[in-house]
Write a structure and sequence with these properties.
single chain, about 180 residues, alpha+beta, PmbA/TldD fold, five-stranded antiparallel β-sheet, 5 strands, about 30% helix
Length: about 180
Amino acid sequence: MREEFKSIAEWILKRALELGADEAEVSLTVSTSRLVKSEGVYPKALSRASSDVWIRVAKGKRVAITTASTLERDALASTVEKAVQLARVSEEDPHWNGLPDPEKPAHSWVGFDEGIVSLEAGWLLDQVRSLISEVPKRYRDVKVTASGGTLAYGYSYVANTRGLSAEQRGTYMSMSLST
């Protein structure tokens, strides 16, 4: 995935400069989520996958950001063209000093857990059901109004025309219960 994202990012940055941007930056993210949600005591399992692309361009002190929810080249070409067009007509930002330069990471922490990636939606559903079933055992007069759980993982890559190139993988897990 890293090489694919790097290739897409390089193409977007090159295209932005060709269209007249002075600077450009692109952020690409893909994520997958397994969710369990309920209203009351009846949970249902859901799954979601998403792609997000943010393109920021500057023309002098004029800055614009456009987004896409696909990695398809035609859509990205249109998105970068719109960003450059918007930057040309946007109001100048007197505080704009340019895109960030590359620098070393502030920490070496990696927030990625293979265990979360490997968990199935059925396991999450069982956990939420277990959470719901504990309420009447402990509190007879309390009713569950909503509950949920999420398992998610993703990958992000950001690059700009000043040489910044950074990537990150991450995982997320949560459980909730409202009474």
